[in-house]
Amino acid sequence: SNEYGFYANVNPMVDHPRWTQARERRLPSGLFSPNLRETKMFNGYEEEVGSLYAGMNLRKDY
């Protein structure tokens, strides 16, 4: 689908058209304790995989 870019799942700075990517819900989670946290770049593996994306515009090529 064109609405959800390839890198959108790993780039918290680019929101999905219908929701924010800045926060994620961790499991277990409930209605009264949603267990939210800030989304980390590359799902927390930036140190390990960040060099693979060097030079890419992850806002444009998301």
TrEMBL record:
InterPro entries: OxRdtase_Mopterin-bd_sf (IPR036374)
Protein name (Swiss-Prot/TrEMBL): Sulfoxide reductase catalytic subunit YedY
